Amino acid sequence: MSNNNKKWFSLNLGRKEKESSGACGCGKTSGGCGAASQSDQMTDAAFAEAAIHASIGEEKNKDGFEQVFDVKMDRRTAFKKLTASLLIGAGAVSTSCSVIGGDESKEKAQIDWEEQFKGNYKLMTDEEKNGTVDRLVRSYQLRTGKTISMSSKNAEEDVLFGYAFNISKCQGYMDCVNACVEENNQDRNSEMQYIRIHEMKDGKGFNFNEADDNYYHEVPAEGHFYMGTQCFHCDNPPCVEVCPVQATWREDDGLVVVDYDWCVGCRYCMAACPYDGRRFNWSKPEVPEAEINKNQHYLGNRMRKKGVMEKCTFCVQRSRAGKNPACVEACPTGARIFGNLLDPDSTIRWVLENKKVFRLKEDLGTEPKFWYFMD
Amino acid sequence: MMNRYNLKYIVSAFIMVLGLASCKHHEDEYHSITDKIEAEGKNYQGTSISSEAYIGDIKTIEITEGAHTFLIPERKSQIKSYACTECHIKPLAKMQNKDFKKAHWDIKIEHANENTMNCITCHNGSNMDELTSLTGKSIDFNKSYNLCNQCHTKQFQDWKGGAHGKRIGGWAPPRASMTCVNCHNPHDPHFESRWPARFNTQKVKERE
Ligand code: SF4
Ligand code: SF4
């Protein structure tokens, strides 16, 4: 069965390093327990009972739900909530116990199972973070035969990310949008994009009602100016507050991130965001294999499932490694400036201290870390 | 009497506590992000993150301008026909006859107007390997920003600080920034208008 320090239940379905124990209990390490005698196999009911017990039974084995609510749940509610998961889990068990299933499909099932019952990334220890990242990498390898690299790098101390956007420089080329789509493995069909560039009429100020964020003509157009919006990584983010399952939160370096595997897709956060910073994916992001960015981060551009919330992460996979976000790098006009707000010698700090900067809807107290300025 | 005093004391203490508490957004200790940046940045010791690796093969030189020290790309090795004296063996005045091969026919000057600028506003006719300031002082090709900043003083200020121009590599130290001529063609410095990089066809459908 699971290690005692694990926060969620895991079955050892044919894992070689562990001896016979756990639900599959056939004692065989490969070849499927179908070969074992009938009495050694668990019935479906017994399996369900074991799974529920393991997931919610003992308080010391806090599972994902309890991590969040931190209350005792009665078995009936827990059972309801677990039904969907159990279906998948049962699938995993039947695969692992079938005679035909090879070692690989068993490993796949094992990974699926552990992924299904893992906890919230926000509450994981570093070891657990590595664990889930390793599983995701392995699972991708098993499914596609390709290797990706995925990071679970935490926020660095003494770093607080901030962004500045020069309205007088932006020419509306949208190179940033292109770079963002490619960097973050965004779905190609639905053309969901984290960044919007708004074309606004000179003399009308910031008027989003009359602005056009999907222009297609030579730019810059006479009598217009351009400005970009995306998630502003508010320091006091209202989107985080409303999430019923705490699937989105503010990291210590100021990035507001989403655990795609914990998000239930309720879209509360989207409604709570005053800046149109969040994007809901109505379909599983699909990217041609050759175009997939294989340099990934768990909280960033990894391949997500359908029906979860996505958004700009300031390219966490890049920024935590010391690179600029893809949009900053792609902008040919230098309108985008990124850096560490806590470093008094950083360029972003110079901009904040020496240019006339402002933010959108400052009076809301959301404290976005995204400033606009002019030459 | 004693009781009243006590009550007053308690009430005023209570109000003070309230006042203190109301200054805080949630558990946060700061009024605003600017306060927070200032306070938390005070004892900034640097981080282990470095952008050095991302500068890549670009050859850089370190410059110090005012309070700012940073890297810019080395220029001379990037100019195809440098050193200029490989062709310009004689001063410009003596080369203006038919005996010499025509050169630089592709250069068109679209920089200020003819009253203000021509070739020798920046190029030194008697020493082509160096640039020249408005007062005739020589300026190294590697530090050509000193030529630009004679007129574009505001842009120069912003560039030094980091508000104008682009970083090379990443946000972390060491800072490497593009210099003027890495983005602007000095003979034709403005940005061309062009079509946006993409058009979102789905958005059009959604909004029908
Ligand atoms: S811009 Fe919107 S999504 Fe981003 S942190 Fe602020 S409230 Fe949340
Ligand atoms: S959509 Fe996901 S991240 Fe947003 S509030 Fe719902 S569960 Fe939380």
Question: Which secondary structure elements does this structure contain, and how are they paired or packed?
Answer:
The complex is a heterodimer of chains A (about 375) and B (about 210).
Chain A: H1 44-57, H2 64-69, H3 75-97, H4 103-116, H5 126-144, E1 149-151, E2 161-166, H6 175-183, E3 196-201, E4 224-229, H7 238-242, E5 248-250, E6 256-258, H8 268-272, E7 278-280, E8 295-297, E9 309-311, H9 316-319, H10 326-330, E10 336-340, H11 347-354, E11 370-373
Parallel strand pairs in A: 1-8, 2-11
Antiparallel strand pairs in A: 2-10, 3-4, 5-6, 7-9
Helix pairs in contact in A: 1-3, 3-4, 4-5
Chain B: H1 2-22, H2 33-41, E1 60-65, E2 68-73, H3 92-95, H4 119-122, E3 131-132, E4 138-139, H5 145-148, H6 153-161, H7 180-183, H8 201-206
Antiparallel strand pairs in B: 1-2, 3-4
One iron/sulfur cluster binds near residues 231, 237, 256, 273 and 277 of chain A.
